Amino acid sequence: MKKIINHPERVVTEMLEGLVAAYPNQLKLIDGRAVVTRKNVPVANKVGIISGGGSGHEPAHAGYVGQGMLDAAVAGEVFTSPTPDQILEAIKAVDSGKGVFMVVKNYTGDVMNFDMAAELAEMEGIQVDKVVVNDDVAVEDSTFTTGRRGIAGTILVHKIAGAKAEMGATLADVKAVAEKVVKNVRSMGMAISPCTPPAVGKPSFTLGENEMEIGLGIHGEPGTERKPLATADEIATELTDHIFKDMPLSSGDEVAVMINGLGATPEMELFIVNRKVNQILKEKGIGVYETFVGNFMTSLEMAGCSVTLLKLDDELKDLLAAHANTPAFKK
Amino acid sequence: MKKIINHPERVVTEMLEGLVAAYPNQLKLIDGRAVVTRKNVPVANKVGIISGGGSGHEPAHAGYVGQGMLDAAVAGEVFTSPTPDQILEAIKAVDSGKGVFMVVKNYTGDVMNFDMAAELAEMEGIQVDKVVVNDDVAVEDSTFTTGRRGIAGTILVHKIAGAKAEMGATLADVKAVAEKVVKNVRSMGMAISPCTPPAVGKPSFTLGENEMEIGLGIHGEPGTERKPLATADEIATELTDHIFKDMPLSSGDEVAVMINGLGATPEMELFIVNRKVNQILKEKGIGVYETFVGNFMTSLEMAGCSVTLLKLDDELKDLLAAHANTPAFKK
C-alpha cells in the first residue's frame, strides 16, 4: 500500500485537522468527534443542513461546509458510517431553533445511524428531517444498500437544499426541494482501477489490465458488468444510456451535468468524457444549463468516473445559481 | 495503459473541446490551434495575460482562463511545448493594444517557443513581455531545463499578474509584480507513482513498491533522491526544509501555501500533508495568509504532491484576494 499518510488509524482525524487548518476563518472541528462545522454555527434563523458518511470520498462531505451549502459534515472512518453520537453532535451544533435537515446517502448503515441521531435530537426538542439520496441507477440493491446507492448526485442536493435554507426557508420547504432534486437526479459510474482503504492495506477488488467495470459503487461494490476497456465515447454513451432508460428526457428539457472523477482520474479524461456527454445531450435537444467537471465524490485513489444528470425547472436553476462559498464548491 | 480516452493522438483536442463545452459562456477554443481564450477577447484596455505549455498538467493552464487570471492558454501535446505559431495566435487574440504578458514555466522548449512567438508578434506591432517561472528548488538543471523548473507556483503568478492586469495596470507594472512573485515563490515535489503519457503507452519511470522520489519534476524528470516511502509528516518536513534552505523565512513573515496533488493523490492525503506544513509554519512563527489544497498543476495520473510557499507583502496579499472566476480557481 503506497499512501502519503502517517498511520492508517489516524487518517480521518489528521485529514480533518489539515482541512480546518487550511480554512481557519471558515471552518472549525468539533474536537474528537470528526464533525466539521462552519466557523459560526448555528446560523441564526436558518435551517441547519448537515450531511456525512464514511470518509474516503473527499471532498465529500466536509469540503462542502460553508455558505450556501452545509452547516456541518460528519465523517466516519474510511467507508464506514459515522456513529449516531457524532451525528447528534452535528445536529446540536447547527440547530438555530428552526430545525435541522440531513442529507443522507442511501447506505444501510448511514440511514440507520442518521435516523437514530434524529430520534435522539428530537428527544432534546430539536426538529429534524431528512432526505435519502439514491441517484445511482446501476444496481437496485448492493453490498451496502437496500435500494439504490447515493453517489455524486448528493452534491447537487447539498447545493440546492443549502441555497434554499440560506434564503430562510422552513424545514418543510427545504425538504420539499431536496426531494425534488432526488426525484430528478440520476448517476452512473465506472472504474478502471480499484482503491485501497488505508486500514485494509490491499485493493478492494481487482481488474485485469484491459478490463473496466460498469456501474461500480464508490466503495468498490460490484457493478452491472465487467468487460474490456472501451473508449471514452463508448463509456460516456453507456453511462448516459443507463440514465436515460431510468429517467427519460425529452427535447427541450434542461439539465445540469456532473462529470465526477473517482480520485485518480486525470482531469484530461473527465473533459474527454464531458465532450461526448455534451454531444449526446445536444443531439437529443436537451439543454445543458450548467456543467460541473472534477472530483466531487471520490473513492480514495480509484480511477474511473461517474456521470450525473439533474433535470431542472426554474426553481432548481435559481437555487443552483445561488451564491455558495465552500472549500470545494464556489458559485 | 489504462485510460478513459478515445485515441492517444486526439487527447488534447478532445479535452479542450470538453472543457469549452463545460463553460460555453466563459471560454472559447480557437479552431485547430489548441488555444483556449475567454469568450470575449481582447478585453478592452487591459494587458492580455497568456500562459501555456505541454498538456497533461490539467487544470494548468486552460482551467485558469477567465476573469482575474488568464486571457488565453496555449496547449501543446502532452509534455510537449506548444509551437510558436500557436502562441502567436494566442497573443493576437488577446491584445487590446495595451500589450500581452506571457507567464512561461522554465522549460527550454517553452521558453524558446514563447520567445519566438513574442518576436513574431512584435513584428506585427504588438508589445509583448514575459516572466519565466522557476519555483522548483529540487534541482538546478534537469532533463528539460537549464536552471530551475517551473511547477505549481506558476498558478500563483497567474493569479497575481492576472489581478494586476484586471485593475488596468501597464505591461511594465504587470511584469514587475509577476517578477516579485517569482522572486518570492518556491516549490518542491515528490512522487510515489509514475504517469503514462498516452502516446508513449508506458510509465515514464518506475518506483519500487516501497519507494518514493523526492524532488521529481512534473514530467517525471529525476529528482534529488530515491528512498523508502516515508510518513506524510516526514515528507512535509523534508519538502519544506528544502524550501527554507533556499528561501529563509523569519518569524513574522506571512506566506500563501499551496499543497498540490499531482493527479492521482486522494485529497485526504493532501490535507494530511497540509496539517504538518501548517504546524511547521506555526512553530516558526510564520503566518499563513491563505492555503490552497488540490490539484492545480498535475502530471496526468502521477501520485505525489508538491508544497509551494509564497512570501507575501501587502500588494501581493491584495492581488491574491482579488476576484477571480475561472473553471479551476475562484475567489
Q: Can I get a quick summary?
A:
Chains A, B: Dihydroxyacetone binding subunit of the dihydroxyacetone kinase, which is responsible for the phosphoenolpyruvate (PEP)-dependent phosphorylation of dihydroxyacetone via a phosphoryl group transfer from DhaL-ATP. Chain A has 331 residues and is an alpha/beta fold. Chain A is 32% helix and 23% strand.
Would you write up a description of this structure?
Chains A, B: Residues 7-329 form the DhaK domain. Chains A, B: This is phosphoenolpyruvate--glycerone phosphotransferase. Chains A, B: It is an enzyme of class 2 (transferase). 2 copies of one chain form a homodimer. The first copy, chain A, is α/β, with parallel strands linked by helices and 331 residues long. The first copy, chain A, folds into 2 domains: 10-183, Dihydroxyacetone kinase, domain 1 (Rossmann fold, 3-Layer(aba) Sandwich), CATH 3.40.50.10440; 185-321, Dihydroxyacetone kinase, domain 2 (Hypothetical Protein Tm841, Chain: A,domain 3, 2-Layer Sandwich), CATH 3.30.1180. Chain A is 32% helix and 23% strand. In chain A, the strands form 2 sheets. The first copy, chain A, has a 6-stranded mixed sheet, sandwiched between helices. Chain A has a 6-stranded mixed sheet with strand order 9-8-7-12-10-11. At the A-B interface, helix 1, helix 6, helix 7, strand 11 and strand 12 of A face helix 1, helix 6, helix 7, strand 11 and strand 12 of B.
